[in-house]
Specification:
Layout lengths: L4 E6 L3 H10 L5 E7 L17 E2 L3 H4 L6 E4 L7 H10 L3 E4 L2 H17 L4 E2 L2 H4 L5 H5 L6 E8 L2 H13 L3 H11 L7 H4 L2 H15 L9 E2 L7 H9 L2 E11 L5 E11 L11 E9 L2 E8 L3 H16 L29 E11 L4 H10 L5 E10 L2 E8 L2 E2 H12 L4 E10 L2
Parallel strand pairs: 1-2, 1-4, 2-3, 4-5, 5-6, 8-10, 10-17
Antiparallel strand pairs: 7-9, 7-11, 9-10, 11-12, 13-15, 13-16, 13-17, 14-15
């Protein structure tokens, strides 16, 4: 009879429960220890063996029976120390922890390599979308130089509902919280932290250079207005929170998360509600988009279980398993500061309804070497002329100087919005 591979789970929340349920379908795998925060909590899991549950996660990582540890609790502590302890004790790791990888991935991967163990993390980037394995295997022959992605279902749901309903951010956020799509404290999602963690690791893998999380520019969706949604639609765009990474001709990396006006002819413009999608551009493959559920019990469990099975299939066959999936980055990417990036911009301005105001806007842009693709005054309400500007490609530093110039002009009542436009 085939010897069963022993698994330890840390976390039995939404993802952990899904992993437990799916693993029951495999006769060659046995879950022998599960760590939870609260042993008394009632769990909707049929046939759960209470005897293997502990509220001390170190019992999992120190259990000599356990061969693979699946860490599904998130955050940096105690996850960081638990994973290091598990590796020290000879265990391979599967994790869905995007924050941990973004902040401490380099140390953990190096430690795993020193101990001849692997860390797999398919679920940490895009939930149920197969991404890391394809990049490291099927797409390994490509030079990937650009990533544009929607990596957070909560923000995509909010922006989609704002677009469809014409509602405000605060109205839709409250609805999303009621439905369970947004946390009571939604900061990690709506301020772009979640997507920034994910693009940090994805760009590191795709570019073959380490991206430092602290150098990733981040901007959330809290300032997006219904008026911006309407204007974008009229001009042929949708507003999405885009996680972006790009290598320039000198190999420098521009990695960031912020709202963008995405042209409607682009695939990402039509990724709605809680769906995630990743567009990769490279040579020779060209441009491909992978799309699917970015979170949830079974989509995320699908990726976690896939990683577990990849390790299981190798155990006992070689002393150095899954070489293609290991981290082999030795170089830190040289990062481009957001102020030095080149972008197109959408600007919404409220100005006095006076002769020459539009000319002043054009002059301010011209003095900073910024050409305008369009400038439109739509309507006047309460002596506020609604002016929408789309620039040609220009440097961020110059655009910010123009914004300051406009804010100091007595005829400009308010600069409502500045949103970058995907080229």
């Amino acid at each position: 009879m085939e010897k069963k591979i022993k698994i330890g789970l840390i976390g039995l929340g939404t993802v952990g429960s899904g992993v437990y349920k799916v693993l029951q379908n495999f006769d060659n795998i046995e879950i022998v220890k599960i760590a939870v925060h609260n042993k008394k909590k009632k769990r909707n899991i049929e046939g759960l063996d209470e005897s293997i549950i502990t509220d001390n996660a170190y019992e999992v990582v120190n259990d000599p029976e356990v061969q693979i540890v699946a860490e599904l609790i998130g955050g940096t502590e105690p996850a960081f120390d638990l994973i290091k302890t598990a590796i020290k004790n000879g265990k391979h790791i599967v994790t869905a922890n995007k924050e941990l990888l973004a902040k401490h991935g380099e140390e953990l991967f190096n430690y795993a390599q020193d101990n001849n163990k692997v860390i797999l993390y398919e679920a940490a980037i895009a939930g149920g979308i197969p991404l890391i394995m394809p990049v490291k295997t099927i797409l390994a022959g490509n030079k990937i130089n650009k990533i544009k992605a929607i990596l957070n279902g909560t923000t995509n749901y909010i922006l989609t509902k704002m677009d469809v309903q014409g509602a405000s951010y605060n109205e839709v956020l409250a609805e999303a919280q009621d439905l369970g799509y947004a946390e009571t404290n939604p900061t990690g999602d709506v301020e772009g932290f979640d997507a920034a963690y994910k693009i940090t690791t994805l760009a590191t893998i795709a570019f073959g250079k380490r991206i430092k999380f602290e150098n990733v520019y981040r901007e959330g969706i809290t300032k997006i207005r219904p008026e911006d949604m309407k204007a974008a639609n009229e001009m042929g765009y949708k507003i999405k929170l885009i996680a972006s990474a790009e290598l320039d001709n000198e190999g420098k990396a521009d990695v960031r998360v912020h709202p963008m006006l995405v042209p409607k002819y682009k695939t990402l413009a039509h990724i709605d509600y809680v769906t995630n999608a990743v567009t990769l551009s490279g040579n020779p493959v060209g441009e491909i988009t992978l799309s699917g559920p970015g979170a949830g019990e079974f989509p995320t469990a699908s990726s976690v279980v896939g990683d577990i099975l990849a390790i299981v299939s190798e155990l006992g066959k070689t002393d150095y398993i899954l070489p293609m999936m290991r981290c082999n980055h030795n170089e830190n990417a040289q990062m481009i500061d957001i102020s030095q990036t080149q972008n197109k911009y959408y600007i919404s301005i409220c100005a006095n309804n006076k002769t020459g105001v539009i000319g002043k806007i054009g002059t301010a842009c011209g003095e900073h070497n910024i050409s305008l693709a369009s400038i439109v005054q739509k309507e006047v309400k309460d002596n506020c002329a609604d002016i929408t500007v789309i620039t040609e490609i220009c440097k961020e530093k110059d655009m910010l100087e123009v914004i300051e110039t406009l804010k100091n002009d007595e005829n400009i009542l308010n600069v409502n919005s500045m949103i970058r436009v995907q080229v």
